[in-house]
Automatic annotation (TrEMBL):
Gene3D superfamilies: Peptidase S8/S53 domain. The keyword Hydrolase applies. It comes from Vreelandella halophila. PANTHER family: CEREVISIN-RELATED, PEPTIDASE S8. Keywords: Hydrolase, Protease, Serine protease. This is S8 family serine peptidase. Belongs to the peptidase S8 family. Residues 139-159 are annotated as: Disordered.
Length: 819
């Protein structure tokens, strides 16, 4: 995990140093297991004097003699042409990279592309078209992606052995990329594009007992003045940068420069007494990628989830309140959509618009997104000659508008959640559907989601439509039911995100596998003025929300944790393969008939404290704990965890505590190993079971780790002091790690942040999305280094192309131009 930092040594007394000799900060940057770098990045081709410097791009396979291991993550650069960013930095041409990988049959290779517009120069370059091709070295079946401007590509090995991955770029500008052959965990991301951040805005969470008045008096000019903030509920506030602070920005500042200034302001907010946390406000979007028109064709997606008259005779969602946080619901004059009107009663259940701050959540989106999602969950066609019936057609719908025209801000989403939770009173809904999100983790949003769990509100989220395994938020938060999409055959839709964090799937459409015709390529539901088709994980999520309404109808005290246990144990899902858990479809397709046909009241289960295990050289063991959830009167016995593989062992540490560890003597280096742990136990004599995925890879040698040349900077915390300047070193990996040293006798004393990272595309900034980054942190926040002329300090950091999801979203740090 990147950003980890450890204080190794500080001399005792005074400022941590002695009077003899110059002051020094020494550091080691460890490199995450499996990390490699493209051998001809823009920096390599532009900056001379590095061991990795070269005049022209490499031809052929870069690492033909040493295939990358099965857990490799490679950062790199491609561009079909050469040019200038307009900020004093240039980019070279390098249209093809070829990497040799060691893969097992079925292993997926994912490449995420980060085009040049994310650089801080503000350049407006079109993204390049890219294509992947995976060729078995020994011959066999190739795998190839589309050639287009999509920023996520994947190919899958059709056999085991060595493969050459060929990445080509044509047209457009330069781009960074990250190649991955293992899934990201719930705690990792590839960084967040600065383009997602809304300049001049923040979400501030106050410490318990601190009110909005205290926020103003304690934070002074750092927090927005009166009239520039709004309470979101739960001690959270949406604040704007004070006008006097905005006035300090240059008139010609680029968007990226305003983002950097915004992040500096937010860091000041975090240090304000009474403030628990401060995070950027960022964009969130609705998730439907395509639209079709046609006549009602709901049967295929309801057949797929076993929803029929028999299920509806048992459960129809009656008496359950379901909040849909989206673009709102279609309304003409004073009438709701005829299929939605029977289940919407704003006077009784409530309606809310967090965007316009009123109680008329009208759908003004271009895609009809909110109306369509709401119809799938709870449309009622009875008595209207309607063409659409929702999964829970008798549910009480609570429409909450948090998105404008298909996108909005996380502050509005938080306000919508807080309105539903109704702080100090009973929640206004039993469940929340979130067919929206982004790849930006926001701790303020995570806090609101956690409060929903505490309030007993079930939260369902769409997994995202990027077609890769990057965590998508809020769906990938552990207390949200993350829903992916399947097509008419029950296979993962080509656009649906997947990963170890995925819980289950539901129909969302797709045109592969012969599903494109006869209305089976998309989900049919309500749209403003009628009915129509949409496609995406947004359409899958309300199928699950409808089934959750059926569950709550049978047990109005059923907790979110128990709902997740029913999914995890396959009680209300249909497995899509031979294993109970599959990385592409989770625990399987939601099963409405199973949910409706049994009495789940009083259900209890043993819940794991982690959902997946990913091992490597640096992490060879982990603990698994099981805890009771649900009915406290249930007697649990015989808990056990087992693996059938000789490379994996499970050691019992207690009644419900186990250690899972690798048997490295039974493993070959460079090979990806996969297994599922089988967890079994008995509840009141009933046998239960579920599976947890495990992956593991050992490297051939730590000395081969390399994340590319790293810029190491001491960045002043207070930039108002003209004597304090950024200090920079450029270091390269040696024997699998980096070493650096600053002579502090030549540095102006003061408080600094210590940052290191790569600039793969030579755009003048390092640590951007898709680049390796290491930050000196303490409890997830940047840790200050008090620099003196006589100090003696040694630190260790860790760098990686992946990073913790709670790392501050940042477009990167500026390089000193002469280095």
């Amino acid at each position: 995990m990147s950003g980890a930092s450890t204080l190794l040594l500080a001399a005792c007394g005074g400022d941590g140093g002695g009077a003899n000799g110059p002051g020094v900060i020494r550091g080691t940057i460890e490199i995450a297991s499996g990390t490699r770098t493209d051998a001809d990045t823009a920096l390599d081709l532009t900056v001379q004097g590095l061991d990795s410097s070269r005049d022209v791009p490499l031809n052929g396979v870069q690492n033909s003699g040493s295939p990358y291991p099965g857990n490799v993550t490679v950062g790199g650069y491609v561009s079909s042409g050469a040019g200038s960013y307009g900020n004093g930095f240039s980019y070279p041409a390098d249209d093809t990279d070829q990497l040799r990988l060691s893969l097992v049959n079925g292993q997926r290779v994912t490449v995420n592309i980060f085009p040049a517009p994310y650089n801080p120069s503000g350049a407006t370059l079109a993204p390049p078209s890219t294509q992947l091709r995976l060729e078995p070295v020994a011959g066999g079946v190739d795998s190839e992606s589309a050639d287009n401007q999509e920023t996520t590509k994947s190919v899958q090995a059709q056999q085991g052995g060595e493969h050459d991955l060929i990445l080509t770029a044509s047209g457009g500008g330069p781009a960074r990329y990250v190649v991955r052959v293992t899934s990201l965990s719930q705690g990792e991301t590839l960084g967040v594009a600065g383009s997602d951040i809304l300049p001049g805005e923040a979400i501030v969470t106050m410490e318990p007992g601190s009110g909005s008045g205290q926020m103003r008096t304690q934070a002074g000019t750092a927090v927005a003045s009166a009239g520039q903030q709004r309470a979101l509920g739960g001690g959270q506030h949406h604040v704007r940068m004070p006008r006097e602070r905005e006035a300090l920005m240059p008139a010609d500042a680029t968007r990226s420069e305003t983002v950097v200034r915004t992040l500096e302001w937010i860091r000041e907010l975090e240090e304000t007494p009474g403030v628990a946390s401060a995070t950027p406000n960022h964009r969130v979007k609705a998730l439907s990628p395509t639209t079709q028109t046609g006549y009602p064709k709901q049967r295929w997606h309801y057949d797929l989830i076993n929803l029929d008259k028999n299920a509806w005779d048992r459960r129809d969602g009656s008496g359950v309140r379901a909040a849909v946080l989206d673009t709102g619901v279609s309304r003409r004059d004073e009438d709701w959509h005829p299929e939605l009107a029977p289940n919407i009663n704003c006077a009784q259940q409530g309606c809310y618009d967090a965007v316009d701050d009123d109680y008329r959540p009208l759908d003004e989106s271009d895609s009809d997104h909110g109306t369509h999602v709401t119809g799938t969950l709870g449309a009622d066609a009875s008595g209207t000659n309607g063409k659409v019936t929702g999964v829970a057609h008798a549910v009480d719908l609570v429409p909450v508008r948090v998105l404008g025209s298909d996108e909005g801000s996380v502050a509005d989403v938080i306000e919508g959640i807080r309105w539903v939770l109704n702080e100090g009173g009973q929640p206004r809904a039993d469940l929340i559907n979130l067919s929206l999100g982004s790849q930006t983790n926001n701790p303020s949003l995570a806090d609101a989601i956690a409060d929903a769990e505490d309030a007993g509100v079930i939260v369902v989220g769409a997994s995202g439509n990027a077609g890769d395994d990057r965590p998508f938020f809020p769906a990938s938060y552990p207390t949200v039911l993350a829903v992916g999409s399947v097509d008419c055959t029950g296979e993962r839709s080509e656009f649906s995100n997947f990963g170890v964090w995925l819980d289950l799937v539901a129909p969302g459409g797709g045109v592969t596998n012969g599903c494109g015709g006869d209305g089976k390529g998309a989900v049919f539901s309500t749209v403003p003025g009628g009915v129509g088709y949409l496609q995406g994980t947004s359409m899958a999520a309300p199928h699950v929300s409808g089934v959750m309404a059926m569950l709550r109808q049978g047990d109005d005290e059923l907790s979110p944790a128990v709902a997740r246990a029913l999914v995890r144990e396959g009680q209300i899902t249909k497995a899509t393969g031979t294993d109970a858990f599959d990385i592409e479809t989770g625990s399987g397709v939601i099963d409405a008939s199973a949910a409706a046909s049994s009495d789940w009241s009083g259900y209890a289960a043993l819940e794991p404290q982690r959902e997946a295990f990913q091992f490597d050289d640096d992490n060879t063991e982990a603990e698994l704990r099981l805890r009771e959830i649900g009915n406290t009167g249930v007697a649990f016995s015989k808990p056990d965890v087992a693996s059938t593989e000789n490379w994996l062992s499970v050691v019992r540490l207690g009644e419900r505590r186990f250690r899972v560890e690798l048997n490295t003597d039974n493993m070959n280096t460079g090979t990806l190993y996969r297994d599922t742990l089988e967890v079994t136990y008995s509840a009141n004599g009933e046998d239960r079971a579920f599976s947890l995925p495990v992956t593991a890879t050992l490297e051939s040698g730590e000395e081969n780790r390399n994340a590319g040349a790293h810029f190491v900077q001491l960045i002043p915390v207070d930039d108002s002091n003209d004597r304090v300047e950024v200090v920079q070193k450029l270091v390269e990996a040696n024997e699998g790690r980096y070493q650096f040293e600053f002579n502090t006798s030549d540095i102006e004393p003061g408080r600094y942040h210590l940052i290191a990272g790569t600039d793969m595309d030579n755009d003048g900034a390092f640590c951007g999305p898709g680049e390796a980054c290491a930050e000196y942190l303490s409890e997830g926040r940047l840790r200050e280094v008090e620099v003196t002329r006589t100090m003696n300090l040694s630190v260790t950091l860790e760098t990686a192309f992946t990073r913790p999801v709670d790392t501050q979203a940042d477009p990167g740090y500026r390089r000193i131009n002469n280095q």
